[in-house]
């Protein structure tokens, strides 16, 4: 018996050290090294994610977060830009990010990543206090996505209908119209609150977005959290987390929240900077594996709350460098989001805004939340568009003879109307019922008037109405 117990006791004794460590109070440490943005301290006994302050000899304090450790060394990253750090500076654990002010007073405010106002309108004073930690929801208790959300954009409302609690990626290269589209949604949506996270944008763009794209009308019902590109990577991460936390707060109050995050790629890049700095090896295109774990961590926090509660419908912009949809971040996000909207540079160059590439975009929840007539009309729209694009070159060089294919004839006939339907001016709202009515008109009008269209419908085995009657029952009860 003793023979057996001896090795076991020996093995257990190894853990005594860790146990002892846990019992040590959160002592303060000393700064020993700084490489790039990474700080190294000794003498700290705190867990990863813990906030600390580095106290300089001048008395100035620098906020930092524990991002890793190696035996007795603790790695930290400053939350804000720092200068004047010196070896031996005291590192003291603090209880930051508790008691974040939350409430109606946040509407119309512009905050930085740690919740401080950037708009010069004084401190934010709300009664409710929350931690930055995510509010957890049992996935089995989440209310399913079964209601539509009016985002005020005609093409999205009618062809890529968004459900309350859905998470959508907005994939686009630079300068294709992401910010303008997000601004339009903020102004025209029927959501109760809009939370906008501007992560890693150029500093100049934050003001431009707030003053020109959002305007006073958009800002009134929104909360903006901004961390421009020159903020420390940790600040950019915090801003994404804070925007999500604010959205969670309003959702927990029973509100329907629209969360617009511009951009998820910059969030991933901030995480990449941190992971590489603490020595994690890069994997895909310089992104270390932990980045791909952090994206779902953030995105999964959006969605519906418990039954009867509020919802967070979220749009995350994803930059597709050189319009490359195979970018690792684009790839990873597409897999975890409930739909993607692709903005096409080609359309933008033709002056069609919002430059939504309808064929490349999809709303995965749309079939569950719209009725059969709506779905059939949207499919008809996409068929016409696809038919035209497939034969575009032939049509352009005059190699297509009218009358050869009734479906192509119908597509040629209606193509200008389809494009016009997608286009929407910056100041023009498109409420859901109106978008839907216009969709029915644009897909049906040609059908009623042109012989080519009737021939095409006969060939297809029925008119649009027949297609609808085949699906009399909505795919799911129409809950709107
Ligand atoms: N709906 C629209 N109507 C007219 N013009 C538009 C519309 N949307 C975008 N534009 C034009 O496209 C330009 C670029 O738009 P925007 O700033 O939204 O692009 P972006 O994708 O956010 O760019 P970046 O990648 O630099 O952030 C605008 O300055 C504007 O001229
Ligand atoms: Mg932009």
From TrEMBL:
GO cellular component: cytoplasm; type III protein secretion system complex
Keywords linked to the UniProt accession: ATP synthesis, ATP-binding, Bacterial flagellum biogenesis, Bacterial flagellum protein export, Cell projection, Cilium, Cytoplasm, Flagellum, Hydrogen ion transport, Hydrolase, Ion transport, Nucleotide-binding, Protein transport, Translocase, Transport
Molecular function via GO: ATP binding; ATP hydrolysis activity; protein-exporting ATPase activity; proton-transporting ATP synthase activity, rotational mechanism
Keyword Transport: yes
The UniProt record lists the keyword Magnesium: no
EC number: 7.1.2.2
Region described as Disordered: spans on this chain: 450-480
SMART domains for the chain: AAA
Gene Ontology biological process terms, A to Z: bacterial-type flagellum assembly; bacterial-type flagellum-dependent cell motility; protein secretion by the type III secretion system
PANTHER family on file: ATP SYNTHASE (PTHR15184), FLAGELLUM-SPECIFIC ATP SYNTHASE (PTHR15184:SF81)
Family the entry assigns: Belongs to the ATPase alpha/beta chains family.
NCBIfam families, per the entry: FliI_clade1, fliI_yscN
Protein name from the UniProt record: Flagellum-specific ATP synthase
Organism of provenance: Teredinibacter turnerae (strain ATCC 39867 / T7901)
Source organism phylogeny: Bacteria, Pseudomonadati, Pseudomonadota, Gammaproteobacteria, Cellvibrionales
